[in-house]
Amino acid sequence: MTSTPQAQAPEGRKARPEHLSHVVFIAASAAMGGFLFGYDSAVINGAVVAIRDRFEVTSEVLAQVIAAALIGCAIGAATAGRIADRVGRIRVMQIAAVLFAASAIGSALPFALWRIVGGVAIGMASVIAPAYIAEVSPSAYRGRLASFQQAAIVTGIALSQLVNWTILTIADGDQRGRIGGLEAWQWMLGIEVVPAVLYGVLSLLIPESPRYLISVGRRTEARKVLRDVEGRSVDLDKRVVEIEENMRHERKPSFRDLLGGRFLFLPIVWIGIGLSVFQQLVGINVIFYYSSALWQSVGVNPASSFLYSFETSIVNIVGTLIAMVLVDRIGRKPLALIGSGGMSVSLGLAAWAFSYKTEVGGEVSLPGLQGTVALFAANFFVLFFALSWGVVVWVLLGEMFPGRIRAAALGIAASAQWVANWLITVTFPTLSDWNLSGAYVIYTVFAVLSIPFILKWVPETKGKALEEMG
Protein backbone atom coordinates (compact mmCIF):
# COMPACT_ATOMS: atom_id res chain seq x y z
CA MET A 1 0.00 0.00 0.00
CA THR A 2 1.08 3.54 -0.70
CA SER A 3 1.97 5.53 2.39
CA THR A 4 -0.01 8.69 2.99
CA PRO A 5 1.70 12.05 3.27
CA GLN A 6 0.68 12.16 6.94
CA ALA A 7 2.41 8.85 7.57
CA GLN A 8 5.59 10.07 5.90
CA ALA A 9 5.79 13.42 7.64
CA PRO A 10 7.16 12.24 11.01
CA GLU A 11 9.90 10.27 9.27
CA GLY A 12 10.79 13.31 7.19
CA ARG A 13 10.92 15.56 10.29
CA LYS A 14 13.22 13.16 12.11
CA ALA A 15 15.60 12.81 9.19
CA ARG A 16 15.72 16.48 8.29
CA PRO A 17 17.60 18.20 11.15
CA GLU A 18 20.17 15.50 11.82
CA HIS A 19 20.99 13.86 8.57
CA LEU A 20 19.39 15.43 5.53
CA SER A 21 22.37 17.66 4.75
CA HIS A 22 24.65 14.60 4.84
CA VAL A 23 22.32 12.67 2.54
CA VAL A 24 22.10 15.66 0.20
CA PHE A 25 25.91 15.71 -0.06
CA ILE A 26 25.97 11.97 -0.80
CA ALA A 27 23.24 12.26 -3.45
CA ALA A 28 24.84 15.33 -5.02
CA SER A 29 28.23 13.61 -5.18
CA ALA A 30 26.74 10.53 -6.83
CA ALA A 31 24.84 12.78 -9.23
CA MET A 32 28.17 14.22 -10.42
CA GLY A 33 28.05 11.28 -12.80
CA GLY A 34 24.84 12.80 -14.13
CA PHE A 35 26.62 16.13 -14.56
CA LEU A 36 29.25 14.43 -16.72
CA PHE A 37 26.49 12.52 -18.51
CA GLY A 38 24.90 15.86 -19.49
CA TYR A 39 28.19 17.62 -20.20
CA ASP A 40 29.61 14.85 -22.38
CA SER A 41 26.32 14.37 -24.24
CA ALA A 42 25.86 18.07 -25.08
CA VAL A 43 29.41 19.37 -25.47
CA ILE A 44 29.56 17.85 -28.97
CA ASN A 45 26.91 20.44 -29.95
CA GLY A 46 29.62 23.06 -30.18
CA ALA A 47 31.81 20.92 -32.42
CA VAL A 48 29.24 19.76 -35.00
CA VAL A 49 29.80 22.46 -37.62
CA ALA A 50 33.59 22.44 -37.12
CA ILE A 51 33.81 18.66 -37.52
CA ARG A 52 31.72 18.83 -40.70
CA ASP A 53 33.97 21.57 -42.05
CA ARG A 54 37.32 20.07 -41.06
CA PHE A 55 36.62 16.56 -42.27
CA GLU A 56 34.19 17.49 -45.09
CA VAL A 57 31.66 14.84 -44.13
CA THR A 58 28.09 14.30 -45.32
CA SER A 59 25.05 14.56 -43.05
CA GLU A 60 24.94 10.78 -42.72
CA VAL A 61 28.61 10.52 -41.70
CA LEU A 62 28.27 13.50 -39.37
CA ALA A 63 25.36 11.76 -37.65
CA GLN A 64 27.51 8.68 -37.08
CA VAL A 65 30.26 10.84 -35.57
CA ILE A 66 27.79 12.51 -33.19
CA ALA A 67 26.18 9.19 -32.30
CA ALA A 68 29.46 7.29 -31.77
CA ALA A 69 29.27 7.83 -28.01
CA LEU A 70 25.80 6.28 -27.91
CA ILE A 71 27.21 2.88 -28.86
CA GLY A 72 29.29 3.00 -25.72
CA CYS A 73 26.32 4.32 -23.73
CA ALA A 74 24.30 1.19 -24.48
CA ILE A 75 27.25 -1.04 -23.52
CA GLY A 76 27.91 0.86 -20.30
CA ALA A 77 24.25 0.88 -19.29
CA ALA A 78 23.81 -2.84 -19.97
CA THR A 79 26.86 -3.85 -17.93
CA ALA A 80 26.90 -1.34 -15.07
CA GLY A 81 24.25 -3.09 -12.97
CA ARG A 82 26.02 -6.42 -12.96
CA ILE A 83 29.42 -4.84 -12.30
CA ALA A 84 27.90 -2.83 -9.43
CA ASP A 85 26.52 -6.00 -7.84
CA ARG A 86 29.99 -7.57 -7.99
CA VAL A 87 32.34 -4.76 -6.99
CA GLY A 88 30.03 -2.14 -5.47
CA ARG A 89 28.34 1.06 -6.53
CA ILE A 90 31.26 3.32 -5.57
CA ARG A 91 33.77 1.33 -7.61
CA VAL A 92 31.60 1.70 -10.71
CA MET A 93 31.55 5.47 -10.19
CA GLN A 94 35.35 5.47 -10.01
CA ILE A 95 35.64 3.39 -13.19
CA ALA A 96 33.29 5.82 -14.96
CA ALA A 97 35.35 8.83 -13.76
CA VAL A 98 38.52 7.35 -15.28
CA LEU A 99 36.73 6.64 -18.57
CA PHE A 100 35.31 10.19 -18.70
CA ALA A 101 38.77 11.68 -18.22
CA ALA A 102 40.36 9.41 -20.84
CA SER A 103 37.57 10.19 -23.31
CA ALA A 104 37.93 13.96 -22.82
CA ILE A 105 41.62 13.90 -23.61
CA GLY A 106 41.29 11.38 -26.45
CA SER A 107 38.36 13.10 -28.15
CA ALA A 108 40.27 16.37 -28.32
CA LEU A 109 43.17 14.77 -30.24
CA PRO A 110 40.83 13.70 -32.07
CA PHE A 111 40.23 9.95 -32.14
CA ALA A 112 36.66 8.67 -32.63
CA LEU A 113 37.19 5.59 -30.48
CA TRP A 114 37.46 7.82 -27.41
CA ARG A 115 33.92 9.08 -27.99
CA ILE A 116 32.78 5.48 -27.58
CA VAL A 117 34.84 5.18 -24.38
CA GLY A 118 33.11 8.29 -23.10
CA GLY A 119 29.80 6.70 -24.03
CA VAL A 120 30.57 3.68 -21.84
CA ALA A 121 31.17 6.10 -18.96
CA ILE A 122 27.87 7.89 -19.66
CA GLY A 123 26.00 4.59 -19.75
CA MET A 124 27.50 3.52 -16.43
CA ALA A 125 26.70 6.87 -14.82
CA SER A 126 23.13 6.77 -16.14
CA VAL A 127 22.51 3.48 -14.32
CA ILE A 128 24.54 3.71 -11.14
CA ALA A 129 23.53 7.16 -9.90
CA PRO A 130 19.73 6.61 -9.68
CA ALA A 131 20.19 3.11 -8.23
CA TYR A 132 22.68 4.29 -5.61
CA ILE A 133 20.68 7.40 -4.64
CA ALA A 134 17.50 5.33 -4.25
CA GLU A 135 19.34 2.92 -1.94
CA VAL A 136 20.79 5.58 0.39
CA SER A 137 17.82 7.99 0.54
CA PRO A 138 15.14 8.14 3.28
CA SER A 139 11.83 7.29 1.62
CA ALA A 140 10.24 10.67 2.47
CA TYR A 141 12.91 12.45 0.42
CA ARG A 142 13.78 9.82 -2.15
CA GLY A 143 11.94 11.43 -5.06
CA ARG A 144 13.61 14.80 -4.57
CA LEU A 145 17.03 13.27 -3.98
CA ALA A 146 16.64 10.99 -7.00
CA SER A 147 15.85 14.07 -9.07
CA PHE A 148 19.39 15.28 -8.32
CA GLN A 149 20.45 13.02 -11.20
CA GLN A 150 18.41 14.98 -13.73
CA ALA A 151 19.33 18.30 -12.10
CA ALA A 152 22.99 17.36 -12.52
CA ILE A 153 22.41 16.30 -16.13
CA VAL A 154 20.81 19.60 -17.10
CA THR A 155 23.45 21.57 -15.21
CA GLY A 156 26.11 19.66 -17.15
CA ILE A 157 24.31 20.49 -20.40
CA ALA A 158 24.12 24.18 -19.47
CA LEU A 159 27.74 24.43 -18.42
CA SER A 160 28.91 22.69 -21.58
CA GLN A 161 27.07 25.30 -23.66
CA LEU A 162 28.51 28.14 -21.56
CA VAL A 163 32.02 26.69 -21.94
CA ASN A 164 31.48 26.29 -25.69
CA TRP A 165 30.26 29.87 -26.03
CA THR A 166 33.20 31.18 -23.95
CA ILE A 167 35.73 29.28 -26.06
CA LEU A 168 34.03 30.46 -29.26
CA THR A 169 34.28 34.06 -28.02
CA ILE A 170 38.00 33.63 -27.26
CA ALA A 171 38.43 32.21 -30.77
CA ASP A 172 36.72 35.32 -32.28
CA GLY A 173 33.60 33.37 -33.24
CA ASP A 174 35.48 30.74 -35.27
CA GLN A 175 34.84 27.15 -34.16
CA ARG A 176 38.10 26.22 -35.89
CA GLY A 177 40.03 29.19 -34.55
CA ARG A 178 43.29 28.20 -32.90
CA ILE A 179 43.89 28.66 -29.16
CA GLY A 180 47.22 27.50 -27.79
CA GLY A 181 47.91 25.20 -30.72
CA LEU A 182 44.49 23.50 -30.75
CA GLU A 183 41.30 24.39 -32.59
CA ALA A 184 38.46 25.83 -30.52
CA TRP A 185 36.28 22.73 -30.85
CA GLN A 186 39.11 20.55 -29.50
CA TRP A 187 39.23 22.68 -26.35
CA MET A 188 35.46 22.28 -26.03
CA LEU A 189 35.83 18.51 -25.90
CA GLY A 190 39.03 18.38 -23.83
CA ILE A 191 38.02 20.60 -20.89
CA GLU A 192 35.72 17.81 -19.67
CA VAL A 193 38.74 16.26 -17.94
CA VAL A 194 38.27 18.78 -15.07
CA PRO A 195 34.80 17.63 -13.89
CA ALA A 196 35.84 14.01 -14.55
CA VAL A 197 38.65 14.31 -12.00
CA LEU A 198 36.26 16.00 -9.53
CA TYR A 199 33.82 13.09 -9.91
CA GLY A 200 36.58 10.64 -9.06
CA VAL A 201 37.53 12.64 -5.96
CA LEU A 202 33.92 12.89 -4.73
CA SER A 203 33.44 9.13 -5.15
CA LEU A 204 36.18 8.66 -2.53
CA LEU A 205 34.25 10.74 0.00
CA ILE A 206 30.85 8.99 0.02
CA PRO A 207 29.86 5.64 1.57
CA GLU A 208 29.02 2.42 -0.18
CA SER A 209 25.33 1.53 -0.53
CA PRO A 210 24.07 -0.24 2.64
CA ARG A 211 22.21 -2.71 0.45
CA TYR A 212 25.44 -3.73 -1.29
CA LEU A 213 27.31 -3.91 2.04
CA ILE A 214 24.70 -6.25 3.46
CA SER A 215 24.80 -8.36 0.30
CA VAL A 216 28.52 -9.03 0.85
CA GLY A 217 28.22 -9.61 4.59
CA ARG A 218 29.55 -6.26 5.82
CA ARG A 219 26.68 -5.68 8.27
CA THR A 220 28.59 -3.40 10.67
CA GLU A 221 29.48 -0.98 7.88
CA ALA A 222 25.91 -1.14 6.59
CA ARG A 223 24.53 -0.22 10.02
CA LYS A 224 26.85 2.78 10.20
CA VAL A 225 25.73 4.02 6.77
CA LEU A 226 22.06 3.50 7.65
CA ARG A 227 22.54 5.43 10.90
CA ASP A 228 24.21 8.27 9.03
CA VAL A 229 21.51 8.55 6.35
CA GLU A 230 18.34 7.63 8.28
CA GLY A 231 19.09 8.97 11.77
CA ARG A 232 19.78 7.60 15.23
CA SER A 233 16.06 7.33 15.96
CA VAL A 234 15.71 4.61 13.32
CA ASP A 235 15.73 1.01 14.56
CA LEU A 236 18.88 -0.13 12.77
CA ASP A 237 18.43 -3.80 13.62
CA LYS A 238 14.95 -3.70 12.13
CA ARG A 239 16.15 -1.93 8.99
CA VAL A 240 18.98 -4.42 8.45
CA VAL A 241 16.57 -7.32 8.95
CA GLU A 242 14.11 -5.76 6.46
CA ILE A 243 16.82 -5.45 3.84
CA GLU A 244 18.18 -8.94 4.55
CA GLU A 245 14.69 -10.44 4.40
CA ASN A 246 14.07 -8.73 1.09
CA MET A 247 17.40 -9.92 -0.26
CA ARG A 248 16.92 -13.45 1.04
CA HIS A 249 14.33 -13.97 -1.66
CA GLU A 250 16.65 -12.59 -4.28
CA ARG A 251 19.41 -14.00 -6.38
CA LYS A 252 22.06 -12.02 -8.18
CA PRO A 253 20.08 -10.54 -11.06
CA SER A 254 20.70 -11.95 -14.50
CA PHE A 255 19.14 -11.51 -17.90
CA ARG A 256 17.11 -14.67 -17.26
CA ASP A 257 15.45 -13.04 -14.24
CA LEU A 258 13.89 -10.44 -16.52
CA LEU A 259 12.14 -13.05 -18.65
CA GLY A 260 8.72 -14.61 -18.13
CA GLY A 261 6.13 -12.31 -19.63
CA ARG A 262 3.95 -12.90 -22.69
CA PHE A 263 6.40 -10.97 -24.83
CA LEU A 264 9.76 -12.23 -23.52
CA PHE A 265 10.32 -9.76 -20.67
CA LEU A 266 8.28 -9.31 -17.49
CA PRO A 267 5.61 -6.60 -17.89
CA ILE A 268 7.36 -4.23 -15.47
CA VAL A 269 10.54 -4.46 -17.56
CA TRP A 270 8.61 -3.53 -20.70
CA ILE A 271 7.14 -0.53 -18.87
CA GLY A 272 10.67 0.59 -17.96
CA ILE A 273 11.76 0.14 -21.57
CA GLY A 274 8.70 2.08 -22.74
CA LEU A 275 9.48 4.98 -20.41
CA SER A 276 13.05 5.11 -21.65
CA VAL A 277 12.11 4.92 -25.32
CA PHE A 278 9.35 7.55 -25.16
CA GLN A 279 11.72 9.88 -23.31
CA GLN A 280 13.98 9.87 -26.38
CA LEU A 281 11.50 9.54 -29.26
CA VAL A 282 10.05 12.99 -28.52
CA GLY A 283 13.35 14.31 -29.92
CA ILE A 284 14.74 16.03 -26.82
CA ASN A 285 18.35 15.29 -27.69
CA VAL A 286 17.98 16.90 -31.11
CA ILE A 287 17.92 20.14 -29.11
CA PHE A 288 21.01 19.27 -27.08
CA TYR A 289 23.12 17.66 -29.82
CA TYR A 290 22.18 19.79 -32.80
CA SER A 291 20.65 23.05 -31.55
CA SER A 292 23.51 25.27 -32.76
CA ALA A 293 23.44 23.63 -36.19
CA LEU A 294 19.62 23.65 -36.14
CA TRP A 295 19.39 27.42 -35.57
CA GLN A 296 22.11 28.04 -38.15
CA SER A 297 20.10 25.92 -40.62
CA VAL A 298 17.23 28.42 -40.40
CA GLY A 299 19.41 31.49 -40.82
CA VAL A 300 20.69 32.32 -37.31
CA ASN A 301 24.37 33.40 -37.18
CA PRO A 302 26.85 31.12 -35.29
CA ALA A 303 27.39 33.40 -32.26
CA SER A 304 23.63 33.82 -31.74
CA SER A 305 23.01 30.09 -32.26
CA PHE A 306 25.44 29.28 -29.42
CA LEU A 307 23.73 31.86 -27.22
CA TYR A 308 20.31 30.34 -28.01
CA SER A 309 21.69 26.90 -27.08
CA PHE A 310 22.89 28.22 -23.72
CA GLU A 311 19.59 30.00 -23.12
CA THR A 312 17.69 26.78 -23.83
CA SER A 313 19.87 24.92 -21.32
CA ILE A 314 18.94 27.49 -18.66
CA VAL A 315 15.26 26.81 -19.40
CA ASN A 316 16.12 23.14 -18.92
CA ILE A 317 17.50 23.86 -15.44
CA VAL A 318 14.42 25.90 -14.47
CA GLY A 319 12.12 23.07 -15.53
CA THR A 320 14.16 20.56 -13.59
CA LEU A 321 13.98 22.67 -10.42
CA ILE A 322 10.19 22.81 -10.82
CA ALA A 323 10.11 19.03 -11.11
CA MET A 324 12.24 18.60 -7.99
CA VAL A 325 9.69 20.63 -6.03
CA LEU A 326 6.66 18.78 -7.42
CA VAL A 327 7.75 15.15 -7.86
CA ASP A 328 7.11 14.14 -4.22
CA ARG A 329 4.08 16.42 -3.88
CA ILE A 330 1.84 15.58 -6.81
CA GLY A 331 3.36 12.25 -7.82
CA ARG A 332 5.18 10.81 -10.80
CA LYS A 333 2.24 10.06 -13.13
CA PRO A 334 0.50 13.47 -12.92
CA LEU A 335 3.80 15.22 -13.61
CA ALA A 336 4.48 12.99 -16.63
CA LEU A 337 1.00 13.68 -18.02
CA ILE A 338 1.45 17.45 -17.66
CA GLY A 339 4.73 17.17 -19.53
CA SER A 340 3.32 15.04 -22.33
CA GLY A 341 0.53 17.52 -22.96
CA GLY A 342 2.88 20.50 -22.99
CA MET A 343 5.41 18.76 -25.24
CA SER A 344 2.71 17.75 -27.71
CA VAL A 345 1.55 21.35 -28.16
CA SER A 346 5.09 22.78 -28.28
CA LEU A 347 6.35 20.26 -30.82
CA GLY A 348 3.27 20.80 -32.96
CA LEU A 349 3.92 24.55 -33.02
CA ALA A 350 7.59 23.97 -33.90
CA ALA A 351 6.56 21.71 -36.79
CA TRP A 352 4.22 24.43 -38.07
CA ALA A 353 6.89 27.14 -37.80
CA PHE A 354 9.61 25.09 -39.53
CA SER A 355 7.25 24.39 -42.44
CA TYR A 356 7.88 28.03 -43.49
CA LYS A 357 11.64 27.55 -43.89
CA THR A 358 12.84 29.12 -47.15
CA GLU A 359 16.13 29.36 -49.03
CA VAL A 360 16.90 32.24 -51.41
CA GLY A 361 20.30 32.59 -53.03
CA GLY A 362 21.84 30.18 -50.57
CA GLU A 363 20.48 32.14 -47.57
CA VAL A 364 18.15 30.14 -45.31
CA SER A 365 15.58 31.89 -43.13
CA LEU A 366 12.20 31.79 -41.41
CA PRO A 367 9.63 34.61 -41.63
CA GLY A 368 9.55 36.86 -38.55
CA LEU A 369 6.42 35.37 -36.96
CA GLN A 370 7.43 31.76 -37.60
CA GLY A 371 10.98 32.41 -36.35
CA THR A 372 9.62 33.79 -33.09
CA VAL A 373 7.18 30.88 -32.72
CA ALA A 374 9.97 28.37 -33.41
CA LEU A 375 12.17 29.89 -30.70
CA PHE A 376 9.39 30.00 -28.10
CA ALA A 377 8.14 26.51 -29.03
CA ALA A 378 11.63 25.05 -28.66
CA ASN A 379 12.01 26.60 -25.22
CA PHE A 380 8.55 25.53 -24.03
CA PHE A 381 9.25 22.01 -25.32
CA VAL A 382 12.44 21.88 -23.24
CA LEU A 383 10.61 23.37 -20.23
CA PHE A 384 7.80 20.80 -20.29
CA PHE A 385 10.25 17.95 -20.86
CA ALA A 386 12.46 19.09 -17.99
CA LEU A 387 9.65 19.51 -15.47
CA SER A 388 8.28 16.06 -16.26
CA TRP A 389 9.86 13.27 -18.30
CA GLY A 390 13.41 14.47 -17.72
CA VAL A 391 13.09 13.87 -13.97
CA VAL A 392 10.20 11.42 -13.69
CA VAL A 393 11.74 8.72 -15.88
CA TRP A 394 14.93 8.55 -13.81
CA VAL A 395 12.98 8.59 -10.54
CA LEU A 396 10.69 5.80 -11.72
CA LEU A 397 13.54 3.67 -13.07
CA GLY A 398 15.27 3.91 -9.70
CA GLU A 399 12.10 2.94 -7.82
CA MET A 400 9.68 0.82 -9.82
CA PHE A 401 11.51 -2.50 -10.20
CA PRO A 402 11.42 -5.24 -7.54
CA GLY A 403 14.70 -5.43 -5.64
CA ARG A 404 15.57 -8.87 -7.03
CA ILE A 405 15.81 -7.47 -10.58
CA ARG A 406 16.38 -3.75 -9.97
CA ALA A 407 19.98 -3.45 -11.17
CA ALA A 408 19.53 -5.73 -14.20
CA ALA A 409 16.16 -4.21 -15.20
CA LEU A 410 17.50 -0.67 -14.83
CA GLY A 411 20.42 -1.64 -17.06
CA ILE A 412 18.09 -2.98 -19.77
CA ALA A 413 15.83 0.07 -19.58
CA ALA A 414 18.78 2.46 -19.74
CA SER A 415 20.23 0.51 -22.69
CA ALA A 416 16.90 0.88 -24.51
CA GLN A 417 17.09 4.59 -23.84
CA TRP A 418 20.48 4.83 -25.47
CA VAL A 419 19.38 2.79 -28.47
CA ALA A 420 16.41 5.16 -28.95
CA ASN A 421 18.73 8.12 -28.44
CA TRP A 422 21.06 6.72 -31.11
CA LEU A 423 18.12 6.26 -33.50
CA ILE A 424 16.98 9.87 -33.09
CA THR A 425 20.54 11.19 -33.31
CA VAL A 426 21.55 9.40 -36.53
CA THR A 427 18.27 10.08 -38.31
CA PHE A 428 17.86 13.79 -37.55
CA PRO A 429 20.40 15.22 -40.06
CA THR A 430 18.83 13.19 -42.87
CA LEU A 431 15.28 14.02 -41.75
CA SER A 432 16.23 17.68 -41.47
CA ASP A 433 17.66 17.71 -44.99
CA TRP A 434 14.48 16.00 -46.22
CA ASN A 435 11.91 18.06 -44.29
CA LEU A 436 12.64 19.77 -40.96
CA SER A 437 8.94 20.28 -40.27
CA GLY A 438 8.25 16.60 -41.01
CA ALA A 439 10.85 15.57 -38.43
CA TYR A 440 9.04 17.58 -35.78
CA VAL A 441 5.69 16.09 -36.79
CA ILE A 442 7.16 12.66 -36.00
CA TYR A 443 8.33 13.84 -32.57
CA THR A 444 4.88 15.34 -31.93
CA VAL A 445 3.21 11.98 -32.64
CA PHE A 446 5.39 10.24 -30.06
CA ALA A 447 4.64 12.93 -27.46
CA VAL A 448 0.90 12.38 -28.00
CA LEU A 449 1.27 8.57 -27.80
CA SER A 450 3.06 8.88 -24.45
CA ILE A 451 -0.21 10.03 -22.83
CA PRO A 452 -2.17 6.75 -23.13
CA PHE A 453 1.02 4.84 -22.25
CA ILE A 454 1.26 6.68 -18.91
CA LEU A 455 -2.45 6.32 -18.15
CA LYS A 456 -2.64 2.59 -18.84
CA TRP A 457 0.69 1.10 -17.80
CA VAL A 458 2.92 3.32 -15.66
CA PRO A 459 2.67 2.65 -11.89
CA GLU A 460 2.69 5.39 -9.26
CA THR A 461 5.61 4.90 -6.83
CA LYS A 462 5.19 8.04 -4.72
CA GLY A 463 5.63 7.28 -1.00
CA LYS A 464 6.43 3.59 -1.37
CA ALA A 465 9.47 1.98 0.26
CA LEU A 466 11.76 0.17 -2.16
CA GLU A 467 10.98 -3.09 -0.38
CA GLU A 468 7.30 -2.66 -1.37
CA MET A 469 8.08 -2.87 -5.07
CA GLY A 470 7.07 -6.43 -5.83
UniProtKB/TrEMBL annotation:
Superkingdom assignment: Bacteria
Compartments (UniProt record): Cell membrane
Residue ranges of domain Major facilitator superfamily (MFS) profile in the record: 26-462
Membrane topology: Multi-pass membrane protein
Any Pfam family hit: Sugar_tr
This protein's UniProt keywords: Cell membrane, Membrane, Transmembrane, Transmembrane helix, Transport
Transmembrane segments: 20-39, 61-80, 92-110, 116-134, 146-167, 187-206, 263-290, 306-327, 334-354, 374-397, 409-428, 440-458
Coiled coil feature spans: none
Entry similarity comment: Belongs to the major facilitator superfamily. Sugar transporter (TC 2.A.1.1) family.
Protein name as it appears in the record: MFS transporter
Organism encoding this protein: Streptomyces spongiicola
